[in-house]
Amino acid sequence: MTGVRPRVASGSAPKPRETLDRCALRAQLRGDPMLGTAFPAARILLVEQPGAWGEQGLRDSDFGADAAAELENRAGRAGVRVQAIRRPGRTPRGSVRRWGYVDTRDGHESLHWGEYRDPRELLDLPFDESAGEPDPEPLYLVCAHSKHDPCCALRGRSVAAALHAQRPGRTWESSHLGGDRFAANVLVLPIGYLYGRVLPFAAEEFVAAAEAGEVIGALLRGRVGLPAPAQAALAYAYEHLGVRRRRDIGVETSGPIVDGVSVVRLQGPHGRIEVTVQVDRVPAAGLTCHNPRPNQYLAYRPLTITALDD
Questions:
Q1: N or C: which end of the chain has fewer CB within 10 A?
Q2: CATH: 3.50.50.60, 3.40.30.10, 3.40.50.150, 3.90.1150.10. Which one for 43-226?
Q3: 241-292, pLDDT tens digit by residue?
C-alpha cells in the first residue's frame, strides 16, 4: 500500500537515522581534514557512569550535577580532562563503579584503575601514578554521546560493539571526545592516539594494528596532548616516510603559528626533520548536527618535510 506511514508504538520515538543533514556525512562529502583535531589534554580521568548522559555528559547524569562540576573543575585546574564511560550495550547499574587515571605523555604512558561508590570519593584523587592499580593493556574509548551529537550514537555504538567483540572488557563507550563530524571516533589509551571515521567491519584489523604498535594513518586525527600543528606534522611524517611503528617518530618542538604557518621539529628513524604546517580558516556549514548554520573550522595542512643536518 502506498502513501501510508509506518506506525510508531505509543510512547516511543523513531530512532535517529543517517541522513544528508547529519554532520558526519556532510563532513565526509566536503572532505573535511581530520589532522590536528585531537584535544589538548594529555591526562584523562575516566569515570564509569552507566545509564543515560545528557548534553553535558557527567553533569547531566545520575552521577550528580554538583559533584560532577566540582570534579571537572578540580581536574581542569590540574590539566586533567574528565570523560564519562560506560560498557557497551545495556548493563545493570551497580553500587560499585570504576574510575581510571590515564597519562599519555611520552615516557609516562600509563593506565591505573580504582573503584568508587560515592561520587565525592573522586574529589580526593591525587591525579598521578600513585592512584589505583596499574593496567598494562590497551584500552579503547568510542564516543557514543548521542545527546551531544546524534552522529556519535549513529556511528559510535556499532563500532563500540564491534571492538567489544574483539576485546571484551577493554572497550568502553565514552562521552564527547570532540570532532562529532568525524564519527565514529576511537581513542586508544594510554598511547593517546585519536582516530576518526572508524568502521565496524574493520574492528579486527584496527585492534591488530593498534596492539602491534602501528599507526593507522588513514584514520588518524592526532595524538592528544600535543599542539594541533604538531599532531598534523606527526601524521604527515608517518605517511611521507612510510613509517608505521608509533615509536619511530616523536615531536621535539612545535613552533607558534605565524602568518598562518607553524614549523614542527620531529625526531625520525633516520634523524631530525622539520615539517611546515599551514593553518587555514575554512568556512563550512553544519559542523554539528545541532548547529546547521554557517561556521568555520581550522584546517592543518602539512606542506613540506625537510631533513636536518645533525
A1: N
A2: 3.40.30.10
A3: 988 899 999 999 999 999 999 999 999 999 999 999 999 999 999 899 988 8
